[in-house]
Design brief:
CATH superfamily of the largest domain: Cytochrome c-like domain
Protein name: Cytochrome c
CATH architecture of the largest domain: Orthogonal Bundle
GO molecular function: electron transfer activity; heme binding; metal ion binding
Mean pLDDT: 88
Structural class: mainly alpha
Number of helices: 7
Number of domains: 2
Distance between the termini: 78 Å
Radius of gyration: 22 Å
Strand order of the largest sheet: 1-2
Pfam families: Cytochrom_C (PF00034)
Keywords: Heme, Iron, Metal-binding
Organism: Trinickia dinghuensis
CATH topology of the largest domain: Cytochrome Bc1 Complex, Chain D, domain 2
Largest sheet: 2 strands, antiparallel
Bound molecules: heme C
Strand content: under 5%
Number of strands: 2
CATH class of the largest domain: Mainly Alpha
Amino acid sequence: MKHSTRSDRGLTRHVVAWCWAGAALIGGQAHAQNVQYAPGKVIFDSKCVVCHQAGGKGQDGLAPPLIELPGRYAAHDEGRQQLTMTVLNGMFGAITVDSKTYNFKMPSFKAMSDEDLADVLNYVVFDLNAKHDGAKPFTAADVKAMRASPMDGAKVREHRDVALKSIGS
Ligand code: HEC
C-alpha cells in the first residue's frame, strides 16, 4: 500500500514534468513562427519597450509608434540611414507621427554593438511593420558605416525631413 502510493506520486510528478515540457515546446514553436528576428525582439523588449511600448505601438506624449514609418524608411537609402543614425545618436526635436506630436529625447544606443543594432532594427522593420516594400535586412556593416559619422540628436532630427521627403511623405 505504502509502496503503491509512492509510485503514484512518482507517476504524477512524471506527468506534470511532461506537460511542462510540452507547453514549453508549443510555446517555443509559436514564438519561432511569429517572430523573424528573435534576437532583435529580446533587445527591443529590454531597451526600447519602456518608451515605444510592446509591439512598438508608441505612447502618447512620450515616444512615437514604430509600426509604419520604419518599414517605409527601410526601402530607401535616406530612410535606412535615418533609422541607423537614430539608434546610434538618438534624436531630439519635435516630430509628428499620425497627427500626434512628440517632443522628448530619444537616447543614443551607440554603446551597443553593430550586430545588436542591426538585429533590433530588423525586428522593428520586419516584425513590427506590416509593410516593408521589399526592403533588405540591415547588416552590422550598415551600422558600422553610419557610426563613422557621429552627430547630435538635433542633426538626426534635421535629417528626418530629408528621409521623409525621400519616401514621399
Ligand atoms: C527614453 C525613451 C526612448 C527609448 C528607451 C527609445 N526611444 Fe526611440 N524614440 C523616443 C523618442 C522620444 C523619439 C522621438 C524623438 C524626437 O521627437 O525627436 C524616438 C524616435 C525613434 C525612432 C524614429 C521614428 C521616426 O518616426 O522617425 C526610431 C526608429 C526609434 N525611436 C527606435 C528606437 C529603438 C530601436 C529603441 C531601442 C534600441 C528606442 N527607440 C528606444 C524615445 C525612446
